Amino acid sequence: MSAPPTSGPAPRARRAAPALLIALLAAALAGCAAGTMPAVHSEAERLSLGRQALANKQYNIAVELLKGYVQNNAGGAEVDHAIELLGEAYLKLREWTDAQAQFERVTRDFPESDSAGSAAWRLGEAMWGQSRGPDFDQENTRKALAQWQTYLRDYPGHWANALAQARVAQARTRLADQYVDHARLYLKNGILGPARMWFQRTIDEYGDTPRRADAELGLATVMAKQGHRSDALAALRAVETQYPGTATAHEAAEQRHHLEHDD
Q1: pTM metric for this prediction
Q2: Is-contact 88 54, C-beta < 8 A?
């Protein structure tokens, strides 16, 4: 006698069940992470809860609470602080343009506020979030750089000064990256005049960045290709001396060796 048919889900259903369970579990975890909007009994409590949600990384809840507070307390004594916190919550959510709008509002409408310094620093962060790498247009990089420089000028001694100084260096290096990339592209295609111009601009405008060494090596390479052998050799030796132990110095030494033995 043959065994009775077994009951249970078909093979495809058995394979689908764990996937469905995982999806349901993920949805449940997402719901827990999102949190639940707390009950609010006063405007002071709304601001306090918004601040607490931000500290607890419940950024969507913080946005809703703080946005409500700002709408309900346009002339309140703490509305400037609430707007700055709202901008910070948007910043954490990577909603850069919304964050920028809030920080601009603080710096424009409440320049004497205790929150203005933090808003000025974070305004640069919101602009930087909208920027892209050196292969793309650098308008937002320049805006962020200008904002951080303005912040450093207007708020000396503020808690974020060191962070802003590091960001200034990062933005300037990205702009120098683009200059060097332009120069190398021209050099690769044998268009030596523009190549030399972009290498020189890197030195003139961003000589305090790490890309100065690459620009100096690039200028020496252009000199060699233009037939200025003695000037190129002197420039290559200078790169070796100024940047010992670096890849740039090693490349300069190789170019100098070839140039010295070139008939």
Answers
A1: 0.83
A2: yes
